[in-house]
Amino acid sequence: MTENILYSDLLDIWFADHRLRIAASTSYGYEKTLPYIKKYFNGIFVSDITSEMIYDFIQILKEEMAPTSARRYCNMINLSLNYAVKYHYIYYNPAWDVTFPRRERKEIKPFTEEEVYLLMETQGEKWVKDAIVISFRTGMRPGEIYALKWSDINFAQRFISVQCAISRANSSTVLKATKTAAGVRRIDMDSKLTAYLMQMHEGAEGIYLFPGQKREYRVPWNLSTYLKDMCNRAGIPPRNFYSLRHTHATVSMAHGLHPKVIQERMGHSDCKITMETYSHVAPTLQQEAVRIWNEI
User: Fold this and answer.
1) Residue 52 CB contacts under 8 Å (≥ 6 apart), including other chains
2) Helices marked H in 146-222 — which ranges?
3) Which tens digits make up the pLDDT trace of 182-239?
4) In terms of residue numbers, what domain contains 65?
């Protein structure tokens, strides 16, 4: 066993190593979280941390913050103590005996097809409306859309090559690999999207679909704010931009597209994620199954 150290010192050692393997945006979130953990475990040696201490800390987290934030704190404690085991500061991770808060399933609020077409008829910024069309017809994430280069669009074979995304950490932005390995993908385009992008391409300047003023690419600051304003003008319930991604999946599933194909278009790492996220569309699929078997 190596020399015992304070947990706050171990956190610094672990984070200096861990941040080399995570996205800048994730690193930024962790960096803001560290002081709160250090404050709670101030003056405590790594070897003295017990599962009861961690459990008590979790109860405080539940009272003071949203479940998503609490899970980040819990994850950091578990990862840092795993690091302590790996490098022999301790022999056993006390966090292994603690049940961490489960990830709560977020309510999916997609648009209807009619609402999307209403949005497209509503006054709004062109860089927002163009992204609405792309997200609705492909299911791409906002960061992926605004990172698109014209070289990623294959007009001849009608597909989009998704290779990177814009990552934001505080006021800085970087282009990075997609959220998961499955995020690097090919999305075939329908004829309407192909025609729409060809029209966008006419007279386009720069290498990006959405050029910026300070950078080569536009950073979609306040994108959801613009969209919610458009929703209000169109007389439909306001939702964030991510709802358009959900709309692509639910519309595709409702029209009978195979979940595996939807998974590939969305860039999910597993088909199970797709089915769990959009399980509320399952009754439509069941009805389609009955219709098919009625004809057999």
Assistant:
1) none
2) 191-201
3) 568 999 999 999 999 999 999 888 899 999 877 888 988 889 999 999 999 999 999 9
4) 7-97
Number of structural domains the chain divides into: 2
Pair 137, 129: CB distance under 8 Å: no
Is 102 inside any structural domain? no
Q: Which two tokens mark 65?
A: 């913050």
Q: CA distances (Å), 75 to each of 69, 99, 102, 188, in order?
A: 10, 11, 11, 37
The CATH number covering residue 93 comes to: 1.10.150.130
Whole-number Å distance between alpha carbons of 119 and 241: 12
Same domain, 248 and 146: yes
Paired tokens of 7: 């947990």
Residue 268 lies in a domain: yes
> For position 85, what pLDDT does the model report?
94
Of 97, 128, 162, which closes a domain? 97
Q: Is residue 41 a contact partner of residue 7, using CB atoms and an 8 Å limit?
A: yes
- Nearest CA-CA partner of 187 in 148, 219, 240, 129: 148
> What CA–CA distance (Å, rounded) separates 241 from 226?
9
Does 91 share its domain with 169? no
